[in-house]
UniProtKB/TrEMBL annotation, chain A:
It comes from the Bacteria. It holds the Pfam family PBP_dimer_2. This is Peptidoglycan glycosyltransferase. Keywords: Membrane, Transmembrane, Transmembrane helix. The chain crosses the membrane at residues 7-27. One of its GO terms (biological process) is cell wall organization. One of its GO terms (molecular function) is peptidoglycan L,D-transpeptidase activity. Residues 54-115 form the Penicillin binding protein A dimerisation domain. One of its GO terms (cellular component) is plasma membrane. Residues 149-453 form the Penicillin-binding protein transpeptidase domain.
UniProtKB/TrEMBL annotation, chain B:
This is FHA domain-containing protein. The chain crosses the membrane at residues 6-31. Keywords: Membrane, Transmembrane, Transmembrane helix. The keyword Electron transport does not apply. Residues 76-125 form the FHA domain.
UniProtKB/TrEMBL annotation, chain C:
Keywords: Cell shape, Membrane, Transmembrane, Transmembrane helix. It comes from Ructibacterium gallinarum. GO terms for biological process: cell division; regulation of cell shape. One of its GO terms (molecular function) is lipid-linked peptidoglycan transporter activity. Coiled coil: none annotated. This is FtsW/RodA/SpoVE family cell cycle protein. Its main location: membrane.
Length: 459, 148, 416
C-alpha cells in the first residue's frame, strides 16, 4: 500500500487552508479594515492626538465653532455654539468616536499627511473655515423653533452651504455625550439623525419642479388641463390638496396652485422612461460627494408602471429625497440649470494662517438648459406671487419658490418649501422641511424660508 | 510624528521587501532542487525501472565528497559536466563519460569516448555491455557497485 | 561557476541576517539605546549561523526548513522584544535550548532504530503527563495546562502532541499488528486518541484538541483503506461538538464571540476585537516596528502574536508568515513522501500536520476566520515548551530527511 498519493491530496488540502487564510486576510484588509479601524473602541485612534492640538473650525466670518483646549495631557473639544452644529460638525468622543466633519476631516484636523518632523512637541492640526454663516445658522435654528425638521440654505451660484440645521439635536460635547448616550440613542425622535443630509423624505409637490422641467423638454407647456380635483387612471386615484377643483388651467397655473391632477396627468402621459430620466438628471439615485455623510436620494421600483410615474411626478410613490437635495434642486433653477456641487469646507489652513487648500465651486450636474431654467423661474415666481406660496412674499424682493405637502406613512404630512431670491439675481436658495407637521407647506414651511431669505439678504 | 516613527514607517517597507525577497529566494532554491529531482518524480509515477550505483568508499580516492548511492531512473549519463544526470566532479572523469540505460528488460552501459575509460568487473569496455547486479564499475578510477 | 552557485545558495541566509540587523538596530533606537536589544539580536544571529552552518556542513538533509524556521523566529523575537524586552531575552534562551534539543533529538532519532516498537511507552508517557497535569497543574487563563517543577513551568500538552504522533505512527506504519488485550491495534489507537482528547477536555485546552483530532483524521484518511472508519469518526466528532456547543458554556462563548464580537466588545468579544483593531490599523505595510500599540491586545506575546505582526509589519508581513509556514509544510510533506521507511513517513506526516493545523487554527482564530481557540503559533509565539517542542519536532523531521538524503533510509526501522 503506497500512501504517497493520499499524502499529496493532504498537501493539497493544507495548501487550500493556507490559501484561504491569506485570502481572508486580504479580504479583511480591503473591505472591512477601514470600518474596524475607525471603531470608537479602537484606542489607537487617539494616539495621534497626544502630540496634536486638534484644529479649530471657523464659520465664514471667523467665528469659532469648535476648538480644542489643552490642559496637560487632556484634550477637551469645545463647541462654543453648543448644539447648533451637532449635525454639521458632529462630535468627537473617545468612547463613541467621531461624526460628521470631525470624522470626515479627522486627518486634516490632526494635521496628518504632514512630514514636518517635530520631536515630541505639541503640534497644531489644520484649521477649517466653513462656508456657513453663523448668524444665519442661528437664525434658522430659532426659526425652526423646536419643530422637527431641517433648514438648508445654499448659495446657488457656488454651492456653498450658508446654513444647515437639523432638529432635534443634541449636545455634542464629549462629556455630555458620554453621560447621556443611551438616553440619546433611545429617544424616539432620533436626535442623532442629521435630517438635512441623512433624512429621506418624499419631496411632495416640490418635485413638480422636475416634472415641469420634463414637460418643458417634451414640449407640453402649452397644454391645458380640465382639473376636476381628482386624477383617476387604471384604478389609481389622487386628490388635489384639500380636494380643490381648479377647472380649465394651463401648466403655469397648475404649478402655482400645485394641481395634482395636472401633474399626475403629465407624469402618466410622459411615462416611466421620461420620468426616470428627469429624476436622474436632477441626481436622484446618484451619489455625490459631500463634506459630511449624505444619504443618496432614491427612486425604488423594480419595474415602473405609468401609475408609478404619475405618483413620482408629484413627489410621492417610492421617491425619497434629502432636504439638502431638494435645496440643490431649487438652487439649480436659480443658477440657470446648473446644479453646483455643495460644500461646507471653504479653506483648510495651518494654525499660522497659511492656506493649504481652497474649495473651488464646481458644477455637479448640468440639469437643464437656460431656457428651461428661465421658464421654471417664471413658474416659481408665480407660486409666490399668486399661488400656494403667497406667505413667502417679501416687500421689495422677488421670491421664487415651490411648496410641498408630502403624504407619508402617518396622517401627518411633511411640510416643504423650496425657494430662492432675489429672482433676478439669486443669492440664496433655501429648503425647509417640517417633519410630520400636518400642515400645508405654504403656510407652515414657507414663512421660515421667507424669514431666512430676508435675514440673509438684509445683511 | 517623531523622527523614530518616521524612520520606522519607512523601514516597514524595507522589511516587507526583505521578507518577500527571502521567500522568493527560498522558493527559487526549492524550485531548482525539485527540478533536479523531477526525473525521479516522473519515473516513480510511470514506474520506470530504477537501479543504483553504490559508492565503494574504501577503494576510492576522490577529491570531492561522493554520495553513498547514486540513483539511475531509466537512463543516466554520468560525467563531469553539469548537464549530466549524475555529476562526478573528479579529475579523471570526462565531461560525458558513460551512459547507463534500461532497454527491453535489461540494463546496458556504454562508454561515451572517455579519456580515462570505463571498466566493468575489471574489464575495460569498448562497446556497450549488459550489466548484472553486483557488477563492479570503475569510472575514471572511481569504483561503484551496480545494484537493482 | 562553483563560487557563484554557492553565493546564490546562501542568499536567503544573507537576507535573514540583514533582516535581523535592520530589525534589532531599529528596536535599539526605539528603546532609547538599550544594549540588551543588541545582545538579543546578536545572540539570535549567532545561533542561526551556528545551526545553519552545522546543518549544511554535516549534510543533515533539508536546509530550507531550518532557514524558514529561523526567519519566523527572527520575526517573533523582534516582535517580542518590541512588546516587552524581557520576553525577547527569555525567548532567545529558549531558542538556544531549542537548538540544543534540535540536535540532540536529531542524533537520537537518527541512531535509534526501534522507535516503532514502543507504542505502549508513548501512550503511557502521554497519559502520565496528563494525569500529572490534572493533579499538580495550575490554572492559567482558564486552562489547567501548566506544570511547575522547581520554579520551571512547562506545558505537558505540547510534549504529548509528539508522543501522540509517534503513537499513531506505530500503528499506521504497519509495525504494530498484534492485538492488545484482544483489541485490534486500530481500536487501541482510536481509544488512545479519545483518551488524550478526553484529558484535554478536562484541561479546557480546545486548541490542542483540534490539532490532535485533525492529525488523527488525516492519518485515518491517508492510511485506512475504506472511508467508513473516517466517516464514523468525523460523524461522532460532529455530534460531540454539537452536544458540547449545546451544553458547554465555554464553547458557546467562543462561537458567539466569533459570530458577532462587535455586540459585546467590552467583555466576550474583547480579545478578538482588539486583535482585529490591530490588524485593521496595520494596513498593507504596517505601522512600522515600534509604531503600533500591540500592548492593547491581550495575550499578545503568545496566542495573539500574529495580530501584532499584522499591526506593525502589515497584512503583507502577516501573509509572509503564512507563506513561510506553507513552505515549511511543503518541504516536510516532500520529506514524508520520499521517506522510504513507513514509520519515518508516518511520523513526518504527523509532525507536518501538527505544524500546519496549529498555524491554521491560531491564525484563522486571530483574524476571525474561524472561532478562536488558544494555541501558540509555532516558532513565533513566546513560550518555552512550545519553542523547545517545535525544535525537537524539526529535529525528527531533519533526521528523517538526512536518512533519505544519505541513502540510508532503506535500512529503516527494525521490522518483525
Amino acid at each position: 500500500m503506497n500512501p504517497n498519493k493520499k499524502i499529496i491530496r493532504v498537501l493539497v488540502v493544507v495548501c487550500v487552508m493556507f490559501l484561504s487564510l491569506v485570502t481572508y486576510l486580504l479580504y479583511f484588509n480591503m473591505f472591512e479594515a477601514e470600518e474596524v479601524a475607525t471603531n470608537p473602541y479602537n484606542k489607537r485612534q487617539w494616539e495621534d492626538e497626544k502630540f496634536v492640538k486638534r484644529g479649530t473650525i471657523y464659520d465664514r466670518d471667523g467665528v469659532v465653532l469648535a476648538e480644542t483646549e489643552v490642559s496637560g495631557d487632556e484634550r477637551i473639544r469645545k463647541y462654543p455654539q453648543g448644539r447648533l452644529y451637532s449635525h454639521v460638525i458632529g462630535y468627537c468622543s473617545k468612547v463613541y468616536g467621531k461624526s460628521q466633519l470631525e470624522m470626515k476631516y479627522d486627518k486634516e484636523l490632526l494635521g496628518q499627511g504632514d512630514i514636518a518632523i517635530s520631536f515630541n512637541e505639541l503640534r497644531s492640526g489644520y484649521d477649517l473655515t466653513l462656508t456657513i454663516d453663523n448668524d444665519l445658522q442661528q437664525y434658522a435654528y430659532d426659526q425652526l423653533n423646536g419643530r422637527e425638521g431641517a433648514v438648508v440654505a445654499l448659495e446657488p451660484t457656488t454651492g456653498k452651504v450658508l446654513a444647515m440645521v437639523s432638529y432635534p439635536d443634541f449636545d455634542p460635547s464629549a462629556e455630555s455625550l458620554e453621560k447621556n448616550w443611551n438616553a440619546i440613542v433611545e429617544r424616539e425622535d432620533s436626535p442623532l439623525l442629521a435630517r438635512a443630509t441623512q433624512g429621506l423624505y418624499p419631496p411632495g409637490s416640490t418635485y413638480k419642479i422636475a416634472t415641469a422641467a420634463a414637460a418643458y423638454e417634451t414640449g407640453r407647456i402649452t397644454e391645458t388641463f380640465q382639473d376636476n380635483g381628482k386624477f383617476e387612471r387604471d384604478g389609481l386615484s389622487v386628490d388635489n390638496y384639500g380636494q380643490a377643483a381648479y377647472g380649465e388651467i394651463d401648466l403655469k397655473r397648475a404649478f402655482e396652485v400645485s394641481s395634482n391632477y395636472a401633474f399626475c396627468t403629465l407624469g402618466y402621459e410622459m411615462g416611466p422612461e421620461k420620468v426616470l430620466e428627469e429624476a436622474e438628471r436632477f441626481g436622484v439615485g446618484k451619489e455625490f460627494g459631500f463634506d459630511i455623510p449624505v444619504e443618496k436620494s432614491e427612486i425604488q421600483y423594480k419595474k415602473m408602471t405609468a401609475q408609478d410615474a404619475a405618483l413620482v411626478s408629484i413627489g410621492q410613490g417610492q421617491l425619497l429625497m434629502t432636504p439638502l437635495h431638494v435645496a440643490m434642486m431649487g438652487a439649480a433653477v436659480a443658477n440657470g440649470g446648473k446644479m453646483m456641487q455643495p460644500y461646507l469646507v471653504d479653506t483648510i489652513s495651518t494654525a499660522s494662517g497659511l492656506t493649504l487648500s481652497e474649495t473651488k465651486p464646481a458644477v455637479l450636474y448640468d440639469v437643464m438648459d437656460a431656457g428651461c431654467a428661465e421658464y421654471l423661474d417664471t413658474l416659481m415666481q408665480g407660486v409666490v406671487a399668486n399661488g400656494t406660496g403667497k406667505s413667502c412674499q417679501i416687500s421689495g424682493i422677488t421670491v421664487a419658490g415651490k411648496t410641498g405637502t408630502a403624504e407619508n406613512e402617518t396622517d401627518q404630512d411633511h411640510a416643504w418649501f423650496v425657494g430662492y431670491a432675489p429672482a433676478e439675481n439669486p443669492q440664496i436658495a433655501v429648503a425647509v422641511l417640517l417633519e410630520y407637521d400636518g400642515g400645508a407647506g405654504g403656510t407652515n414651511a414657507g414663512p421660515i424660508a421667507r424669514n431666512v431669505i430676508r435675514k440673509y439678504l438684509q445683511k | 510624528m517623531t523622527f523614530y516613527n518616521f524612520l520606522s514607517s519607512i523601514l516597514s517597507y524595507v522589511f516587507t521587501f526583505i521578507i518577500y525577497l527571502f521567500i522568493f529566494g527560498v522558493i527559487r532554491l526549492i524550485y531548482l532542487d525539485v527540478k533536479k529531482m523531477s526525473r525521479f518524480e516522473n519515473n516513480s509515477v510511470s514506474g520506470v525501472e530504477t537501479a543504483s550505483l553504490k559508492t565503494l568508499h574504501g577503494k576510492n580516492q576522490a577529491e570531492t565528497e561522493l554520495k553513498n548511492r547514486y540513483m539511475i531512473y531509466g537512463e543516466a549519463v554520468i560525467g563531469r559536466s553539469k548537464t549530466c544526470d549524475i555529476v562526478l566532479r573528479e579529475k579523471y572523469v570526462s565531461n560525458q563519460h558513460v551512459r547507463i540505460w534500461f532497454e527491453k528488460g535489461e540494463w546496458y552501459l556504454e562508454d561515451l569516448g572517455s579519456r580515462n575509460g570505463t571498466e566493468v568487473n575489471g574489464q575495460r569496455i569498448r562497446q556497450r555491455v549488459m550489466l548484472d547486479p553486483q557488477d563492479e564499475i570503475s569510472i575514471g578510477g572511481l569504483r561503484f557497485v551496480f545494484e537493482l | 561557476m562553483g563560487k557563484f552557485k554557492g553565493l546564490n545558495y546562501r542568499r536567503p541566509a544573507y537576507l535573514l541576517m540583514l533582516m535581523n540587523m535592520f530589525g534589532f538596530g531599529l528596536l535599539f533606537v526605539a528603546n532609547s539605546y538599550n544594549p540588551n536589544i543588541l545582545y538579543v539580536g546578536a545572540g539570535l544571529l549567532g545561533l542561526f549561523i551556528l545551526m545553519y552552518t552545522i546543518i549544511v556542513l554535516c549534510r543533515m538533509g533539508d536546509k530550507f526548513i531550518m532557514l524558514m524556521a529561523c526567519m519566523l523566529i527572527t520575526i517573533g523575537v523582534l516582535l517580542l522584544c518590541r512588546i516587552k524586552i524581557d520576553y525577547g531575552i527569555r525567548q532567545i534562551m529558549w531558542v538556544a535550548i531549542g537548538g540544543a534539543a534540535f540536535f540532540t533529538v536529531y542524533v537520537v532519532y537518527y541512531n535509534i532504530r526501534f522507535w516503532n516498537r514502543m507504542w505502549f511507552l508513548y501512550l503511557a508517557l502521554g497519559t502520565g503527563l496528563f494525569l500529572a497535569t490534572l493533579l499538580f497543574g495550575k490554572v492559567v487563563n482558564g486552562s489547567k495546562n501548566w506544570i511547575s517543577l522547581g520554579g520551571f513551568s512547562f506545558q505537558p500538552a505540547e510534549i504529548t502532541k509528539i508522543l501522540f504522533i509517534m503513537f499513531l505512527a506505530c500503528y499506521y506504519s504497519g509495525s504494530w499488528n498484534k492485538p492488545f488485550l484482544r483489541l485490534k491495534p486500530k481500536w487501541v489507537t482510536m481509544l488512545g486518541t479519545y483518551l488524550f482528547i478526553g484529558f484535554l477536555v478536562l484541561q479546557r485546552d480546545w486548541g490542542t484538541i483540534l490539532v490532535l483530532f485533525a492529525i488523527y483524521i488525516f492519518m485515518i484518511y491517508v492510511y485506512e483503506k475504506g472511508y467508513g472508519f473516517l466517516a464514523g469518526n468525523v460523524g461522532v466528532a460532529a455530534i460531540v461538538a454539537l452536544l458540547g456547543y449545546k451544553f458547554l458554556y465555554h464553547i458557546q462563548v467562543r462561537v458567539s464571540a466569533w459570530l458577532d464580537p462587535w455586540s459585546d466588545i467590552a467583555d466576550k468579544g474583547y480579545q478578538i476585537t482588539q486583535s482585529l483593531f490591530a490588524i485593521a490599523s496595520g494596513g498593507y505595510f504596517g505601522r512600522g516596528l515600534g509604531n503600533g500599540s500591540p500592548n492593547y491586545i491581550p495575550e499578545v506575546h503568545s496566542d495573539f502574536i500574529f495580530a501584532a505582526v499584522c499591526e506593525e509589519m502589515g497584512v503583507f508581513g502577516g501573509a509572509a508568515i503564512i507563506i513561510l509556514f506553507f513552505l515549511i509544510a511543503y518541504r516536510c510533506f516532500k520529506i514524508s513522501i520520499t521517506a522510504q521507511d513507513p514509520f519515518d513517513k508516518a511520523v513526518c506526516l504527523g509532525l507536518t500536520l501538527m505544524f500546519a493545523v496549529q498555524t491554521f487554527i491560531i491564525v484563522g482564530g486571530v483574524i476571525k476566520m474561524i472561532p478562536l481557540t488558544g494555541i501558540t503559533l509555532p516558532f513565533v509565539s513566546y513560550g518555552g515548551t512550545s519553542i523547545v517542542v517545535n525544535f525537537a519536532s524539526l529535529g525528527i523531521i531533519q533526521a528523517i530527511s538526512a536518512k533519505e538524503e544519505r541513502g540510508t533510509g532503506g535500512a529503516g526501522h527494525e521490522s518483525k
